[in-house]
Amino acid sequence: MVMYVVLGNFTDQGIRTAKESPKRAEAFKKMAETFGVTVKELFWTQGRYDVVAILEAPDEFSIMTLSLSLGALGNVRTESLRAFSAADMAKVVDKML
Question: Bridge partners of 42?
């Protein structure tokens, strides 16, 4: 499985309908499931980003499809960061020269 940290900002449309954000979050979780993606955590945040999500997916294609589908709805723009666990990172550094 592939882990991602997804950072999101409301668009103008998304902030105008911010009261609907909790309902949209539930719809997002269901949408994610259709692509085999699990929403591990979802937070609304203060500061540079409005939303932070931790996602687990079977592959990068699933995340890409989910991101494009979410973006097409027009409420949020996202930045996806591939995340590595401590165990993954140990494997990576073991291969370093």
Answer: 53
Q: What are the structure tokens assigned to 69, written together?
A: 């589908």
CATH number at residue 56: 3.30.70.920
Q: What is the pTM of this model?
A: 0.91
Does residue 80 contact residue 6 with C-beta atoms inside 8 Å? yes
| Helix, strand, coil percentages in the chain from 3-state DSSP, rounded to 5 | 45, 30, 20
Q: How far is CA 13 from the centre of its chain?
A: 19
Domain residues for 77?
2-94
pLDDT in tens, 45-79: 999 999 999 999 999 999 999 999 999 999 999 99
Structure tokens at 56: 């687990």
Using the 8-state DSSP alphabet, how is residue 49 labeled?
-
